[in-house]
C-alpha cells in the first residue's frame, strides 16, 4: 500500500513557505518536485490574465507606494509586471515578476507532465477558455473554484479541462457544501478539495472528524471523483494518518516538508 501514487498541488505555486507564490520560479519549483503548481488568475486593465493571489501588488512585490495598493484590474500588464515579485520572499528569487498566464502555458506546451491548477479570482471564463484552447493545454489544466456552477461552466467552455470544487469554512459548512455536491452527482466536478484546519496535535488534529473524511472518500470513489485535502498544518503523524485512510490527493503550502512526511510513511510500510 505504501507504494501508492500520491498526487499533490503546491498551493499558490510554491506554497507559503518555500517559494514566492504565483511566480514562474514557484511553478518550476513545484514541477521539479513532481507536483502540480496552483496559479490564482485575475485580469489586468488591458485584459491580460495574470497569476496573482491578491487583488493588489502590496504583499508580494516591490511595487512603490503609489502603485502597490491599486487593484491590478485598474493597472495595465506593463504596470503590473515591472516590479520584482521574488526578492521580498528571498533574495535568491530576485528578478521574478508577476507572470502572464501565457508564460505558464508556454512552459506546459508539449510537456504533458506539467499540469496546473487554476484558481479563479477575477477572470472572464470565456477568455480563460480561449487561452487554454489557444495553447492546447486543456488536459493539463484543473480549474478550481468554491462555486460549483463555475466548475460546470468552465468544463463546458474548454473541452478536456478538469475541475476541482474547493470546500472551506467551519466543519458544518464543509459538510453541507460537500453534501450538496454529492446530491448533484458531483456534476461538473472531477475533484473535491476539503480544507483541514487544526493544530497538528498528537491526537486527531483537524476540526473535520475522521469519520466524515472516510465517508467523503467512499462517496467520491463511487463516482470516480478524487478527494483532495489541504491540511494547513501537518506533521509526519497527521500525514501518515491521512495516507493510511486512503487519501491520495493533497494540497500543501510546504511541498518539500510534505514529501518528507510521505517518504517517512512509505518507509514504515
From TrEMBL:
<dbReference type="InterPro" id="IPR017946">
    <property type="entry name" value="PLC-like_Pdiesterase_TIM-brl"/>
</dbReference>
<feature type="domain" description="GP-PDE">
    <location>
        <begin position="6"/>
        <end position="269"/>
    </location>
</feature>
<dbReference type="GO" id="GO:0008081">
    <property type="term" value="F:phosphoric diester hydrolase activity"/>
</dbReference>
<protein>
    <submittedName>
        <fullName>Glycerophosphodiester phosphodiesterase</fullName>
    </submittedName>
</protein>
<dbReference type="Pfam" id="PF03009">
    <property type="entry name" value="GDPD"/>
</dbReference>
<dbReference type="GO" id="GO:0006629">
    <property type="term" value="P:lipid metabolic process"/>
</dbReference>
<dbReference type="InterPro" id="IPR030395">
    <property type="entry name" value="GP_PDE_dom"/>
</dbReference>
